[in-house]
């Protein structure tokens, strides 16, 4: 069982020949053990390998619900199924400092700035939430 900060697992599939990660990446939370999850999710084909990483959300860094940072969006992605998928996109882009996530449509907007020093750009938006990049982290050590 996971204890302490909220944890989810990052499950990454990749081809054995060294190709890019197969998308979409699946993010999920669970009370199951890592062994239980691996046995449930491991693919049956021999040409695909899996990697599991610990994924932590820092509960002390709460999102700004109903707010979005405008005029700082550098990349947008549609159809993200949850905020964890949006957070992963932000972590993959070195210039991403924060992101907006729209729960109703799955729109993910990566920002090149945080709200600090740009408070006037943080606007009310009922279906979006604003997150800082360091709200989420991935443990670099594979489980």
Automatic annotation (TrEMBL):
Coiled-coil annotated spans: none
Listed InterPro entries: Pan_app (IPR003609)
Organism: Biomphalaria pfeifferi (Bloodfluke planorb)
Signal peptide start-end: 1-21
Annotated Apple domain residues: 56-135
SMART domains: PAN_AP
Keyword Protein transport set for record: no
Protein name according to UniProt: Thrombospondin-1
Key words of the record: Signal
């Amino acid at each position: 069982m996971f204890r302490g900060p909220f944890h989810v697992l990052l499950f990454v599939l990749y081809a054995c020949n060294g190709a890019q990660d197969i998308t979409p990446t699946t993010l999920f939370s669970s009370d199951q053990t890592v062994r239980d999850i691996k046995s449930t999710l491991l693919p049956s084909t021999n040409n695909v390998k899996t990697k599991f990483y610990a994924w932590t959300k820092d509960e002390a860094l709460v999102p700004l619900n109903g707010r979005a940072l405008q005029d700082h969006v550098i990349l947008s992605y549609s159809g993200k199924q949850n905020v964890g998928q949006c957070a992963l996109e932000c972590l993959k882009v070195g210039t991403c400092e924060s992101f907006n996530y729209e729960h109703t449509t799955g729109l993910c907007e990566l920002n090149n700035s945080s709200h600090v020093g740009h408070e006037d750009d943080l606007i009310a938006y009922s279906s979006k939430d604003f997150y800082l990049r360091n709200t989420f982290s991935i443990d670099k050590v594979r489980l």
